[in-house]
Amino acid sequence: MDKIRAPAVFSQRKRQKGIHTPNLTCSYEIKFNEFVIFIIQRKMGRTRRIFLMELARRKGFRVESELSDSVTHIVAENNSYPEVMDWLRGQGVDDSSRFELLDISWFTACMEAGRPVDSEVKYRLMEIIEEGESSRAKEVLNDERYKSFKQFTSVFGVGVKTSEKWYRMGLRTLEEVKADKTLKLSKMQKAGFLYYEDLVSCVSKAEADAVSLIVRNTVSTFLPDALVTITGGFRRGKKTGHDIDFLITNPGPREDDELLHKVVGLWKKQGLLLYCDIIESTFLKEQIPSRKVDAMDNFQKCFAILKLCQPRVDNSSYNTSKNIDMAEVKDWKAIRVDLIIAPFEQYAYALLGWTGSRQFGRDLRRYATHEKKMILDNHALYDRKKRIFLKAGSEEEIFAHLGLDYVEPWERNA
């Protein structure tokens, strides 16, 4: 088998913030000579592209850093066929017929199989050029079951299992669900329907900041030294989201198992709490991390809906002859808020997991499992060779344990 020199883009430690120092001494055995892959960075980002290139090389694939005549397979993520063609023309490529133009799903399938998989129609971007649109995607979008499930799962508290049940009952729309008096909705689902319009609308950065202030002030009332960190998309620099996640920990010796109960109790007295469901921790000491890519963690959590008051509209511009009763104008918005309590020794792992993105987390856990013989989840990192848990006081230390350069939160959108 051939061997290829490839830069080890992930140094053991980040020598200088923002700078990657390649180590050119690593070589990888090429197992699949007939495949030469090039990954387009467009809409993917440099960090994720480097990560995927390294992963493929370790799996025995030949991956080119630059587009060349030897490339056989071009992989793109979140790019349409016309967008890829425009990019190729920008690279001076007039004839794209010599390439297989593939979606990232083909690459993912190859990595999971550990070998090349057939570039079926479902993976090829050419589907789109022949018909002007993806017939497979169009077929799915027009499917009655898909349309119903999309409506059902948009309701807070409704998942795939409930959607399947409703669909089998002959229900197809939310209006039909609300009209069916025989259905027994859970407390969460009732709240989901009651505040539906607010909950399906985007949460702005300004709204997230306002809720953040409420959460921090309330938590500090009961635990002044607690750390409250906004996670999820807003920590990754996104301007909008559908809910707001907060990770709470206490670095001091004092812990309060009743903190979440006290927080929601105060919100209830203040008239801010519209709904809440507290899930108690099920974590066991020295518990080995889950091997599942999408496993839920075992932290204590509170899934809540808060009433966020908003400034009243100036009614001076309204014509009183329209008989508009300004007392009835809604001056608040229902906002989904998740609170997660993590022990301080697990805080770094919880922060990494709850920051996301989901795809970034999946990639990182797969890398830990397949390349480092470790198991990573939101609680810990376990070295299967040494049979020890690796302690980490920060996200940087976790990346160092994995032999990777630190990736900033805003670079993790994938």
Keywords:
16 strands, disordered N terminus, 4 domains, 414 residues, 36% helix, Rossmann fold, alpha/beta, DNA polymerase, domain 1, single chain, Beta Polymerase, domain 2
Would you give an account of this structure?
Mean pLDDT is 86; it is low at 3-25 and 317-322. The chain is globular and about 70 Å long. It has 414 residues and is an alpha/beta fold. The protein is 36% helix and 17% strand. It has a 5-stranded mixed β-sheet with strand order 8-10-13-12-11, sandwiched between helices. The protein has a 4-stranded parallel β-sheet with strand order 4-3-5-6. The chain has 4 domains: 2-138, Rossmann fold; 144-194, DNA polymerase, domain 1 (Orthogonal Bundle), CATH 1.10.150; 203-314 and 322-352, 2-Layer Sandwich (Beta Polymerase, domain 2), CATH 3.30.460.10; 359-411, 2-Layer Sandwich (Beta Polymerase, domain 3), CATH 3.30.210. The protein starts with a strand and ends in a 13-residue tail after the last helix. Strand 5, helix 2 (81-90) and strand 6 form a beta-alpha-beta unit.
